[in-house]
Amino acid sequence: QVQLVESGGGLVQAGGSLRLSCAASGRTFSRYAMGWFRQAPGKEREFVVAISSSGRRTYYADSVKGRFTISRDNAKNTVYLQMNSLKPEDMAVYYCAARFSIYSEDYYKAAGDYGSWGQGTQVTVSS
């Protein structure tokens, strides 16, 4: 298991940008597929984006495609979520998640696929 700590959340106006970071502990971060999920008040946690352990494959929810970009730096044990053109409906607590992956090109879209979660970081978008 890895320990995950998110950062970078905050308040932004609609149309603005934020970059979230998720720092992982441990020496085997490069073997973990990563994902970002979000949960708005009164709603279920939803998938945002996933990235394979290699970083070569990604998968985005339709709601963020073209606006959000996931990337990872395995040397820094960190995964990033660049969020542009933010909308009020993007407002939520954002969580990063990790799953040990045997295959370097696999990514995972279901919350139940992940074994490690961060504490979350709040993103607030004002209209």
Rounded to the nearest angstrom, the radius of gyration is 13 Å
Number of strands: 11
Order of helices and strands: EEEEEEEEEEE
Uncertain stretches of 5 or more adjacent residues: none
DSSP helix fraction:
under 10%
Q: Based on the structure, what is the oligomeric state of the protein chains?
A: single chain
N-to-C span: 39 Å
How many helices in DSSP terms?
A: 0
Mean pLDDT: 97
Q: How does the helix and strand content classify structurally?
A: mainly beta
Question: Features of this protein?
Answer:
127 residues; mainly beta; 7-stranded mixed sheet; 4-stranded antiparallel sheet; 11 strands
Word description of this protein:
The chain is mainly beta. 0% of the residues lie in helices and 48% in strands. It has strands at residues 4-7, 10-13, 18-24, 32-39, 46-51, 58-60, 68-73, 78-83, 92-100, 116-117, 121-126. Strands 2, 4, 5, 6, 9, 10 and 11 form a seven-stranded mixed beta sheet that branches. The chain has a four-stranded antiparallel beta sheet with strand order 1-3-8-7, with no helix packed on it. A hairpin with a 6-residue loop joins β5 and β6.
